[in-house]
Amino acid sequence: MWLFASFFAAIGILATTINVTEAKFDYHCNLTAKGNPKFPDNFSFGVSTSAYQIEGAWNEDGRGESIWDEFTHKFPDMMDDRSNADVAADSYHRFDQDLAALKELKVNHYRFSIAWPRIYPTGDISSKNQKGIDYYNKVIDKLIANGITPIVTLFHYDLPSEIQKFGGFANPLIINMFVTYAIECFENFGDRVKIWNTFNEPIDYCKPGYADANYPPQINAHGVADYLCMDHTLKAHAAAYRTYRSRFYEKQRGKIGMALNSRFFYSHTNDQEAISRGMQFNLGFLSHPIFSKTGGYPPAMVETIHSNSLKEGRISSRLPRLDGKWKEIIKGSADFLGLNYYTSRYIKRASEPMGENPSWDRDYDCDAYPDETWVRGKPFWLYCVPEGLEDILKYIRDQYGNPEVIITENGWSDDGDLEDDDRIHFIKSHMQAALNAVNDGCNVTGYTVWSLIDNFEWQRGYTNKFGLYAVNLNSPNKERTPRKSAKYYRKVIETKTLPSI
Ligand code: NOJ
């Protein structure tokens, strides 16, 4: 009798679980359509990858070592599965397989990155490697021959190790070294590449790399070196932008932006000051100096970090000052804002000191937390909050005079099932957010799924799958297999609408 009762109870629980699972996305990962159900004709749909995460061939054809090669080789325990990207999806040898997937998807653009250590193996111009240049020429030519617009990122975390030896992003010399490398890329590829991102997600390599010691170069000078890394990144970006405008623009007519990552913030108590602080310490860190009318770092950061620094007994702020000259060089130094959006948070002012002393967290002085009803993906940080994308796009429109925005990344990760309905719900609701924003006057011109294929997800190794296409990592041919989401995305691209699932 007892057995029977528990059996039926178990079925009951199971049924409820199934219902909840089915209902979860309907309720929490859905966004109501507002306005025109069709994207504008010239709206561009694409997919994204980055060099280190997919290329493999880490020591072939003259490529130099990057800090991620060094890190994964020396400290395999820092990766969940002790993996590295020595081979990864082997795109260096298998670009044709990636191209076949791009063609099947019918994407309008493909965003990928150039590995600095393939072009300059030591990071310096003296080490120029023609084979690396040839490889990207081939990729770009094949994309263009197939009507796919290349969107190229110049830096996506894989800094040449030799540059790190003298400080990497903590040394202002990085500014000129980056500009020299950027010039090499403009000279070799700029006749065909018309959309460039200088850097990808600076917060995401400066904080874990220079403050928290989780990423290479594993420095934990929190509250000091992370800010220096951001400052040098920003200056390198602006210097590359100005160089492009003065030396290449007249002939090449391309656009330059930077891929910035940010969450949007909400408040349970309608604390607008906390929300504004959240935006200033995240998106605003680099978007305010470039896109605001006044330029310079966001006021909340300038004031807090200056006053905390003095309290700590320092003679000046840990946040570098943007003097008049740099402020002007940086202001307006982008033709579009690249936005990597994945998730959002609620925010409130911290009730006790956050993080270490000093640190970005301590200066920030806010507690950001997810709403417990939000649906979570595989990683601890990824909750589905499509309204956050719509709201951040409106924030950019209102704060910065409606600049062009290309959504350079958005995606969902899971265990890798081919029947990936959750990913479909995620991308559909986020494309709805982009469309709602367009219908509300935001100048959003493109949307990009991260990622085309499964790849090396940094410290998560290969345990988190982000691909529209699965990659058989165990097979010598590394076959790419479309997931259900790839088929859905293709329908979106074909119709420029969001068909029901
Ligand atoms: C942002 C990064 O640009 C990319 O490298 C990473 O794989 C995705 N987010 C997913 O975490």
Q: Your description of this structure?
A:
By secondary structure, the protein is of the alpha/beta class. It has one domain: TIM Barrel (Alpha-Beta Barrel), CATH 3.20.20. 45% of the residues lie in helices and 13% in strands. The chain is built from 18 helices and 13 strands. It has an eight-stranded parallel barrel with strand order 1-2-3-4-5-7-10-11, surrounded by five helices. Strands 6-8-9 form a three-stranded mixed β-sheet. Strands 12-13 form a two-stranded antiparallel sheet. The longest helix has 28 residues. It is globular, with a radius of gyration of 23 Å. 51% of the residues are buried. The N terminus is likely disordered. The chain binds 1-deoxynojirimycin (NOJ). 1-deoxynojirimycin binds next to loops.
CATH topology: TIM Barrel
Q: Can you name the CATH architecture? A: Alpha-Beta Barrel
Mean pLDDT: 95
Low-confidence stretches: 1-22
